[in-house]
Amino acid sequence: MKSQYRMLFSFVAIIASVSLACSALAPAEPTATPIPTIPPTIAPPPTVAPLPTSDVQVPNPSGPSNPAGGNAAGQTSGTSSDIVTFVDENNLLAFDLPGDWFYEHNAYDTYYVDTFTSPDESSAKIESIVYNDGTAFNNSDSAATALSWLNQFYSSTGKVGDIKVLGDQIMQDGSERLEWTSKGGGYSGYSYFEIRGSDNKTFLMFTVWYINDIDQATLDTVNNAVNSYYVP
Fold it and tell me: Which CATH class is domain 2-227?
């Protein structure tokens, strides 16, 4: 009987040793790349009620940042609805829109935001976010970041649950397009996002959003801006 117990104890010890060895050799679980978070400085979604009046409209400076020519940078433009071309400060994107749309630029340590608001300051906005914290992105990172930012900045609540993604499409230029709507905010939009640069460290998201009862003329302006979008 004693020899049987000794054999049983020996067998248990062998099993425990093998288990510990396997645990030591098992590869560590991969660590997910943190989703970039940025302070809530993105312009609020369009609402039926007027937003605070801006004192800066779409800039029309001469030089490479805006080939249309006109006012010096930083000055208030006129109220002309003539089409001007906005070009990103790092030549990452460009598009056309009327010169009477209000414009705001905000720059921070790891990102900058260009926001364009319709002349009535309530029915539509166009926004470009360029983010680079020195960390390379991959495709799964960019998709997770885009969804996170939709919920954080473009929902009526600032939380998950309000934004409903209606469609997801890969574009010919490699960017990804998310069509979405706010369940409680009374507005909808679509966002294009992509990774830029040979080092894959620049994340760009271009978004348009508008109230659901937007007039056709403003909607046409928004669509024309998107259709004129190009990389300089």
Answer: alpha beta
